């Protein structure tokens, strides 16, 4: 069953590429209509697309799978951008007026434009998060309409290397998939999992991914700090290969037996696990490796929160999310590292989601993808072509032949409704469109206007007229011979 209105989004992370399509309902819920996912480790590393051809092929596969489930062509998609080089950088722009005056919207726009023109080597501004505006000696979040002479605007620019955005855009261009918008993925994730109270009171969002860990700090409903660490849960898997096992087996051991803060179980609980080659490994030895790397990742995340300058103002605490947050005892370890009691794990978005419940498990891995879907607002379906555009032009040979407008028929009068025998007079014959018999000079052919064909005006129109006349004359000759 096809649908004509939906929003489509694609997320390229270090471990997988996932696509989703659905509709936002009036009550704020999301109805998921299609979902597709593939492994992306062969062309994405730490959020950067390094193999454009493979990425384009994967994008085509995702879009084709979504279109098959939707029964409709996708015209464009929303795609999130994130990666190791993404970070925030503060900038200030000042302006002094000749005399005290009211701050206008045009002046604020000029300050914003001047901020974006800041020269940066090998970096580009992906988005801007305006902070407070200082007018004379007072801070304002909305300066328009305030009287003052000196204004200083403080901006938080989200910057990344040019290659991060360029490679992503080239992959979609090569896949022949149009991008509806390219929002910063951590921002849409924050809007999807954080409450307004948490962002106002002050909180830190730590997204534990496969190859990267993203740290964001919010205070007074504004983004205050953002950075991406080149550490993730894949580092834990790689460390486990020191047990002389393949990464696939190491990943399975981490998921089945790993713990960020291992504690001895009951005496009846198993203390060892078997490897594929028949060897056995003690769970304590296994989790010493897991816990050491997990502590390193969380300690670095907490250090970034302290560097933001808001470590002591996060009254709503810390929120963990992402696939790495599923490691048991992660919350407990973060409380121990940060000495912060308010720590929670956001395993799903705030919106109610219907459809594809099995693929969209509440494990934190789909939060960014669902955030992209929730942030979209344009219809991504291919608009239906009009019926007239699909109809062929008039004429057997596909020639573009104009048809003159037909005169409106006059209403019949009572005198015309009487059936009177036709008068076979010369005058009547010249006026009417009546066809002649076998003695007629025209051989039963109607005039050009009677056939709705415009003669003259071009070589093809004359050619079509001669062909038609020849065909009709041949038909008339056959009729005359039959009558004879």
Please outline what is shown here.
It is built from 14 helices and 19 strands. The chain has 484 residues and is of the alpha/beta class.
Tell me about this structure.
Among the domains are: 196-345, Nucleotidyltransferase, domain 5; 392-405 and 435-484, no CATH class. Helix content is 33%, strand content 25%. The strands form five sheets. It has a six-stranded mixed β-sheet, with helices on both faces. It has a five-stranded mixed β-sheet with strand order 14-13-12-17-18. A four-stranded antiparallel β-sheet has the order 7-10-8-9. It contains 14 helices and 19 strands. The two termini are 63 Å apart. It is an alpha/beta fold and 484 residues long.
Would you give the CATH topology of the domain at 196-345? Nucleotidyltransferase, domain 5
**How many alpha or pi helices?**
14
CATH fourth-tier homologous superfamily of the domain at 196-345 = ATPase, nucleotide binding domain
CATH class identity of the domain at 196-345: Alpha Beta
Share in helix: 25-40%
What does the overall shape look like? globular
Largest sheet: 6 strands, mixed
- Terminal residue distance: 63 Å
CATH architecture assignment of the domain at 196-345: 2-Layer Sandwich
Please, what is the average pLDDT? 84
Radius of gyration: 36 Å
Given as residue ranges, the uncertain stretches (5+ residues, pLDDT < 50) are 386-391, 393-401, 412-456, 479-484
The helix-and-strand class reads: alpha/beta
> In percent terms, what proportion of residues is strand?
15-25%
Would you report the number of β strands? 19
The largest sheet has its strands arranged as 11-6-1-2-3-19
């Amino acid at each position: 069953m096809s649908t004509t209105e939906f929003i489509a989004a694609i997320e390229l992370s270090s471990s997988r590429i996932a696509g989703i399509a659905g509709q936002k309902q009036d009550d704020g819920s999301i109805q998921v209509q299609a979902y597709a996912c593939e492994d992306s480790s062969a062309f994405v590393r730490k959020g950067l697309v390094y193999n454009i051809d493979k990425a384009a092929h994967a994008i085509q596969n995702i879009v084709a799978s979504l279109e098959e489930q939707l029964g409709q062509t996708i015209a464009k998609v929303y795609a999130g951008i994130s990666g190791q080089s993404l970070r925030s950088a503060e900038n200030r722009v000042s302006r002094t007026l000749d005399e005290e005056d009211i701050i206008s919207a045009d002046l604020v726009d000029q300050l914003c434009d001047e901020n974006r023109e800041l020269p940066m080597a090998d970096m580009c501004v992906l988005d801007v998060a305006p902070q407070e505006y200082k007018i004379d000696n007072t801070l304002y979040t909305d300066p328009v309409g305030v009287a003052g002479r000196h204004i200083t605007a403080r901006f938080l620019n989200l910057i990344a290397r040019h290659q991060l955005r360029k490679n992503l855009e080239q992959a979609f261009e090569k896949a022949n998939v149009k991008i509806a918008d390219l929002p910063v993925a951590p921002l849409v994730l924050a809007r999807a999992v954080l409450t307004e109270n948490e962002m106002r009171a002050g909180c830190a969002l730590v997204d534990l991914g496969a190859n990267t860990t993203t740290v964001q700090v919010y205070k007074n409903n504004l983004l205050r700090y953002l950075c991406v660490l080149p550490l993730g849960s894949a580092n834990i898997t790689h460390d486990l290969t020191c047990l002389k096992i393949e990464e696939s087996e190491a990943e399975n051991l981490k998921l089945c037996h790993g713990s960020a803060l291992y504690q001895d179980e009951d005496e009846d609980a198993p203390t060892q696990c078997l490897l594929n080659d028949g060897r056995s490994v003690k769970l304590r030895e296994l989790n010493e490796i897991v816990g050491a790397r997990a502590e390193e990742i969380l300690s670095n995340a907490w250090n970034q929160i302290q560097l933001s300058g808001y470590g002591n103002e996060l009254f709503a605490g810390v929120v963990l999310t992402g696939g790495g947050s599923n490691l048991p005892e992660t919350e407990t370890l973060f409380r121990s590292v940060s000495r912060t009691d308010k720590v929670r794990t956001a395993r799903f978005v705030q919106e109610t989601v219907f459809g594809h419940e099995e693929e969209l498990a509440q494990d934190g891995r789909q939060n960014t993808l669902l955030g992209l879907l929730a942030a979209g607002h344009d219809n991504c379906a291919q608009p239906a072509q009009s019926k007239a555009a699909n109809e062929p032009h008039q004429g057997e040979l596909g020639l573009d032949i104009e048809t003159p407008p037909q005169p409106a028929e006059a209403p019949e009068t009572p005198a015309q409704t009487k059936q009177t025998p036709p008068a076979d007079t010369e005058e009547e014959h010249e006026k009417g469109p009546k066809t002649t018999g076998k003695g007629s000079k025209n051989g039963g052919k109607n005039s050009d206007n009677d056939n709705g064909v415009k003669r003259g005006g071009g070589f093809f129109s004359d050619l079509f007229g001669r062909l038609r006349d020849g065909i009709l004359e041949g038909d008339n000759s056959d009729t005359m011979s039959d009558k004879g």
